[in-house]
What does this fold into?
Amino acid sequence: MAQHKIIFAGPVGAGKTTAIRSLSDIPIVTTDEDATDMTTNRKPQTTVAMDYGLIKMDSGERVHLYGTPGQERFDFMWDILTEGGLGLVLMLDNTRTNPFQDMSFYVNAFKDFIEETQLVIGVTRMDESRKPELAEYSKHLASLGMMVPVFEVDARRKRDVSLLVQALLFSIDPGVVSEA
Amino acid sequence: MLNRLFGKKTTPKVCLMGMNERALNVFTMFLNDPSKNWCEIVSDGSHEIVIVDLDSMDSSRLWMDLRRDFEGPVIVLSVSKRELANAYWVEKPVKPEQFKHALEQAKLALAKPSAKVLPQQPAQATPLSKPKATPAIPSGSTSGLASEAAAPLASAAATVMSENLDERSQNCCGDLADEVYLDLSQRERLFYDYEQSLLSLLLEAMRMTAKGGMVSFVGLAGRPLYVSAAEGFVSTTMPEAFFRSLCVRSVTSPAITLVLVDKTSADIGPSADRRLQRLDNLVWKVALWSSRGRVSRGVSLDAPVRLRAWPNIPRLMSVPHSLRIVALWASQPTSLLETAGKLGVPHRYVFSLYCACNAFGLVEQLDATALAKSKHTVARAMTQEKRSLFGSLLKKLGF
It folds into this structure.
């Protein structure tokens, strides 16, 4: 049986672990450790290797959900994680000082993977900070030559994360239909 | 027994789904008869019982969507008999006594401990249903995080849930049949007069307040509507259903005007109906309700439509097939008529979605020459294996 995976990336505290938990059919496996560097002011624990969740389908197929570590110093993991992935879900935290910088960083870091597959962006914590607005994200993406789905999401809500993944699939193939 | 069950103290809250506008009005009138006092119609997600018409086009999907979010008793209206878990069938045409009996059973079920209903409870397909390519509104469940944010989160989720169920059922994209779109002699029916629509006034109000200030709509059935684009603020005392009905009428007779007022959002307070509290969603809804499956005069039905940016779909009223339609416009600019054909979706969804996206400037129409010159991403060729995987995954995700 073929194995498939979707990658969740983004800075510390953007909601990657929570998003995977929202979709996973199994209790997620996470490798959180006490943060010891600048991430401590955003969350007391952070993912150091990866998060792992799983979607089990009626057909017996499985889609693995991998979350990359949020700290840049773990970026040696990213190539390993993305190999054979269906696409990238980039989670961005709207309360961070410069979310566009985060976006550019991750888009660039996963450039090859995105070119081969597809990118969707979920912006979290917009209820705490309305600015920047989604339109500004889209403008910034346009300046990078990209036009991809950018949604306001609450990573705790399955519906929101599900819509992100659906948008990812439809962006790859608008003609695909749900199994009857 | 009946008196006790249908007495004032046990009046359950119900919501209506799956009905076209006419049926909805008739049924609302029937249930609102004060002499009955059988139940209270609500649209804020607080319903205990759902009354659903399962003879509509997308009834299979509607049922699955409903059961994904609501486990309580359901009264099913249908021409043919339905045997569904925790549901009570009433034959159409509906007879008051039969309906009353079903409502009594539903109320009794409410008193019992709730039985868990499987989300994928199969619906008995109607001859008109199209189960294969129907999109879905995924469940609005929250994760099990026990955080301080749990209360507002639950409240927001309830709003979204009722939004999805209600709007879907109320046919937000009108009821024009596909034949009308393909019949040249009926083409006039596919257009509406934008200048006469509430949407035109609302967008004007947005322009007036883009940098600050507050606009009040005067002449809107005697009910206030305040808008401030700079603050992302909207407020009205109108319930959503009432507001929606205003989108059908012309804004010039009697005239509705915009007046700048010296008030702030703090002075006014939020809308009474939670569904009318987000300005972006209000604009989206007004565009859909003004459109009702049509486009404004001047819009080409044959020019390719290109997506400039994606709408914020998780926070906007659901339109069936919206993800597929905008994904197509993003990757392959396609005309309105062709979009429906290519994706096998009803034209009214395509036309309504175009109007809603256009209200935000998210789409543009290209001419054939520009299209030939433009760079656009063509969707990658998919293997059958991958397409099958995607289909399974979409089903799993509630699509």
